[in-house]
Amino acid sequence: MRPTALGRTGLGIVVCLSGCIVYSLWNGEDARLSISLFAIWALGYIARLCHGDRQLTTDCCISWIWVVWLKRKDVLGFVSKRWNDGARWQADLAMAILACVAIVLWFSCKKEIKMQDSLPKTAGKWIREFPKAKIFPCRTTHARIFPKKHAFNYSYLQVGFPVIPEAITAGGLHISTGQDRTLGSWWLNIKAEDYLDRGSGDLGFYGKLKMYLGDQHVKDTEWCYAYLVTAPRFFGYAFNPVSFWYIYDADDQLKKMILEVNNTFDERRMYLLDGSSPPSPPRTLESEGSHDGSGLEVGEEPKSRFTDVWTKDFHVSPFNSRKGSYALKALNPFPAVTSDDPKIDNTITLKSSRGHGKLVARLFSTAKAIDPETIGVLGSIRFVVSWWWVGLMTFPRIVREAGKLFFKRKLTVFFRPEVQASSIGRLPTASELTLHKVFSAYLHDLVAQTEENFCLTFRAGIPNVAVEIITTNREHTPDRPTKNLEIRVLTPAFYSRLVHYAYTSEAIDRECVFTDERNRTLWLCRPQLLPLLLSSAKSLKNTDEGQRVVKRNYLCELRWELLKRLRCAPPDPVYSATPQSFTVDDIRSRPFSELDRFVRSEKGREFAGDYRRVVTKIFLAHRFAFGFSEGVEAVDLLVRVLLGCFAVVPIIQGGGSGIALPGKWPESGLSQMHWRCPEECTVGWWWLFWSTTVVLSCHAYQMLKGYSSTRLCMRKISLFALCVSALSHGKDGEKDQGTVEHVKLHRVARAVMVEQLIEAELSAWHGPYRMHN
After folding, report:
1. What is the pLDDT of residue 537?
2. Do residues 456 and 487 lie in contact, with contact meaning Cβ atoms separated by under 8 Å?
3. Are residues 463 and 525 in the same domain?
4. Are 479 and 576 found together in one domain?
5. Given a cut of 60, is residue 293 above it in pLDDT?
6. Is 422 a domain residue?
7. Is 122 part of a structural domain of the chain?
């Protein structure tokens, strides 16, 4: 059985068994028919479990909710009776809650101790002075100058946290174990996983910042620590249009800044600024009010302001194009590391590509910064009451002002282009995560088939997925140099669009090479090497006849045939090269795509079930739900909820107790169904057939989608039986052994036998397989 399926269905098993036991306690002897129908339902559950169904937990929860709803009168009576029995039950509940809290605290302390022990013994604590954490009550103002004037201002809350190393080695190397992955308190905090590159939250803030600066070729000697000013998570929710990273060196001088910009499409861009392009002339003694008139530049002293200018290459607002430039004037919040009253005052000016000022945005402090360590309980309550709503209103405010600009000011709307290689795309969906695994395996297969010495660097664009270096297993000779190719996925939308194409070369052409830069979802470093990777010879090999055929039953082939017939062209790009007055229809036949044939072959059959379901859902969404997979999922959930109700009703009615159905349901509907067999007659075949069909309807619907094959299911069941037989074999021998050592040796021998059985069975089905502890 699949470990993922077992892990996700553990809760379902507990829910089902507990429901059966509780219902039996309620009904006593009248629950015979209910238990019989529940046993039939459980058989369908086991069949789905063996087939690797990953929606068992959801369906079990749906069934449990229906049971509670339909038996709500009995549930309320049971709870009321237990509550009135006395204080003993209440005391037991309180003890259970305290035990859960103690377990959580114990695991937290154990984890913290483990992280502290992971520091090298030669490392010492980082003890130098650094800025303290602060809460900044602020206000933000936006003034649009061109092409039409528009302005607004709102209160805004910012927090500042120092990003410092945990320890320093004898050689002066700053290190961190990731203990700073969360900064702040439980109700007001920030998390490292929300900043800089996607994922890698275990590195902590300092570890992620160090990795990012290293990727930008910033040496460790050029900086020492940082101070992050951002919008906090308020009770778990946060929306950050822009975050400011102040980078200080060992002399507490502000040397660099990072502006981390997020748009409403969940895309991100980090701008690393070093102040090398100031928007104004350098300060001189004369400009500072000196009376000697020498006009010499002021020497090195703590910077009070940081200025820089850079090119815009990230889509933020639909009323501004991706062209133009930014200018920043930022106040140094800590000109001295021991500043008691730091202030935030940052101004960003957006200019068009022709140099016209378009927008001026400013964020500045409106009150003295608050020290969270001295705020106290009453101060915390007063602060929460005053500011809890500000973070929640950030996105609605953006929508409100956008509505004013569109309906009242009639500004031109610029559609969102795809991100460039310098930016970070949105988070992937569950479907795109599945397709990424398939595409990665497909690339490995293509590189293995190439006749050249090939080295492919694949950047998946998925959080917490490392860069893959895929190479051929051939000897490198001077006359056959290695061909290096890099493929970078700019946005996870590439995976959803890839499955629409019948040929991989066509997908890469339209998504990367021959398309507008604003439509690119893929980036290549050397497109001229693609013919070596996607040659026609390999395409001919990648057919059903050229691969080792995987036998499938008739129903499975029908599912694949449905996928093939549903295949359609991908959604039109935002910036289409085809004029709107022309309509281009693809009159080619719809064969299995090259990716389909790879998955249908022996090499990719481990992905076959998940791949087919995901791709079918994408095609259904494109044809019937305007491209929204959520619409298909909503319809699927609705069907499962209704089938869950149909399955629960006969199980409950079989015991003879009535059901309180909603009064608004039609009389000719579910309330009119007579599930219970009359007491004066025996259970007939027709009643048994009808009840069994209804009870198994939810399972049948899910199994029609297709998971593992029936042959694999039977092999799993036989493997389970063999293991049980092996474990039960020799128990009598254990009883005969007189010493503990003999019993231990006997158990080890049985464990080895079980391992050999598992390896033999898996080798027979999956090919060579090696056990891993």
Report:
1. 46
2. yes
3. yes
4. yes
5. no
6. no
7. no
Q: How far apart are CA 543 and CA 745, in angstroms?
A: 52
Look at the chain and report how many structural domains it folds into. Answer: 5
Within 8 A by CB and 6+ apart from 236, the residues are none
Cα distances from 641 to residues 507, 614, 668, in angstroms, run 38, 21, 20
Q: How far is it, in rounded angstroms, from Cα 591 to Cα 501?
A: 10
- Cβ-contact 66, 51 below 8 angstroms: no
Q: Is the dihedral of CA 305, 309, 314, 316 positive or negative?
A: positive
Please confirm whether the linkage preceding 147 is cis (ω < 30° from 0). Answer: yes
Please give the angle made by the CA atoms of 458, 462 and 464, to the nearest 5 degrees.
100
Same domain, 197 and 239: yes
pLDDT, position 107:
58
When pLDDT is averaged across residues 607-629 and rounded to a whole number, the result is 93
User: Nearest Cα to 439, choosing from 515, 534, 504, 514?
Assistant: 504
| 3 state SS of 549 | strand
Question: What is the pLDDT at residue 139?
Answer: 94
The CA distance from 152 to 636, in Å, is 44
Whole-angstrom CA distances from 239 to 203, 397, 566, 670, 772 are 22, 12, 38, 45, 43
CA end-to-end span of the chain, whole Å? 17
Least reliable range by pLDDT among 212-226, 467-481, 610-624:
467-481
Question: Quick check: 402 pLDDT over 70?
Answer: yes
Please give the DSSP secondary-structure letter assigned to residue 706: -
Separation CA 460–CA 433 (nearest Å): 10
Exposure string for 689-724, b = 16+ CB within 10 A, e = fewer: eebbebbbbbbebbbebbbbbeeebebbeebeebbe
Show the domain range for 604: 430-627
DSSP codes of every residue in 157-198: EEEEEEE--SEE-TTS-EE--STTSEEE-SSEEEEGGGSSSS
Of these ranges, 1-5, 254-258, 297-301, 542-546, the one predicted with the greatest mean pLDDT is 254-258
By the 10 Å C-beta count (0-12 exposed, 13-18 middle, 19+ buried), 59 is classed as buried
- Tokens 């709307």 locate to 413
- For all residues of the chain together, what is the average pLDDT? 78
Cβ within 8 Å of residue 649, ≥6 positions away: 70, 659, 670, 673, 675, 694
Is the model's pLDDT at 4 over the cut of 60? no
User: What is the CB neighbour count within 10 angstroms for residue 356?
Assistant: 12
